[in-house]
């Protein structure tokens, strides 16, 4: 029995090592929820998450359950474009603007939109406390990009920054929904700048980066503005207001 258990453990470990060292590096594209993605530049870890459907699970679920084709969206932290493509291809949303801070990731996003026959409205800007250049920490994985020091970045790049009000002012429509995932930079948002037209906010909060007190303060600020916590899963919140 012990020998059989050891053999099973050895075989499982061997298959895992083979998958990450030899199989996954050869994967160039992935289809997830009907969205085609170029993953040739991604790590084996990210490719594995995508192939197993583990990528952006909470955001995807909340968007599918609570956003409709009538919504107009501002997404802050677009990464490689998956959530934006999911919302537009699967949910039928027409008015959709993406903000992404890392210029390298913007290139991946544009490539993925091209693969799906769509043209993105994407701004290479970092959401910040105010307008002006900011320092973005860039990690080895695209999701490690953050304005917050210690959030995983191993090098830095200077990018344009803009407040939430500054971003809103650039839109040619009134957004009804915000999708926010900016790896701790949510602490820089002045939520008083959320326009009255916004009724839905999907936001991932990062207490490991910004601390629990700031996390609770963000929730309290939104509740004081008339939002309620409709759902919370895996650190991703859905706020709604009438």
Structure characterization notes:
The model has no long low-confidence stretch (mean pLDDT 90). This protein has a single domain (56-240), classed as Rossmann fold (3-Layer(aba) Sandwich), CATH 3.40.50. It is built from 8 helices and 12 strands. Helix 5 (103-115) links the parallel strand 4 and strand 5. With 242 residues, it is of the alpha/beta class. The strands form 3 sheets. A 7-stranded mixed sheet has the order 5-4-3-9-10-12-11, sandwiched between helices. Strands 6-8-7 form a 3-stranded mixed sheet. The N and C termini lie far apart (61 Å). The protein is globular and about 65 Å long.
H-E string: HEEHHEHEHEEEEHEEHHEE
Q: Order of strands across the biggest sheet?
A: 5-4-3-9-10-12-11
Reported for the largest beta sheet, the result is: 7 strands, mixed
- Mean pLDDT across all amino acids: 90
Cα end-to-end separation: 61 Å
Instruction: Please state the CA-atom Rg, rounded to the nearest Å.
Output: 19 Å
**Uncertain regions: pLDDT < 50 for 5+ in a row?**
none
- CATH-assigned homologous superfamily: Vaccinia Virus protein VP39
Instruction: Report helical residue fraction.
Output: 25-40%
How many separate domains make up the residues? 1
The CATH topology comes to Rossmann fold
